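In the current project phase, our protein records have gained a C-alpha cell line. A sample record follows, to show the layout:
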Amino acid sequence: MIVSESYVVPSWSCVGFIFSIDEDANMNQNKIYYQNQKDWTADDFNALHRYLSKMVEHAYDSPGSYDGQNRINEIKTISVSEMTKEAKILLYCAILSQNSELINECENLKDLINLTPLSYKLILNPFKQSGDPIYRRFNVLY
C-alpha cells in the first residue's frame, strides 16, 4: 500500500485518489467509483477506467495472496446502486471484456446486466478513440 499525505492507494492500483486517510469511517463514499463525476474530464474517467479494469483483470490472480483477496473482496462489496451510470458502464465493460464470470459469481453485480448504453459518447482518451467493441456498444471510446 502506498501512503501519501492525503491518500492511501493499494499498491496494485494505478489511480492516485482512491480514499482519504482521514476518512476511514466513510471509506465507501470516497472510493473513486462512488465519487460525484459531474465535472470530470476525460483524464478523470480514464483513471476510473484503469482502476476498475485492473481490479477486474486481476481479481483471481494469486487467490491466496493479500492483493488477490483484497481485489475480489472489493468487487464483492461494491454497491452498484451508489455508482453513477458512467461508473457502472465502465465496470460492466471491464467485466465483460476481461472476467465475465464475475457477473454470475457476485450477486451485487447482477443489476449491471440491465444497463443501457450512454446517450452520449464517453471519451476516455481524446487521442485514441477506438477500443474494445464491448465498450463501443455502450458508447465508451478509449
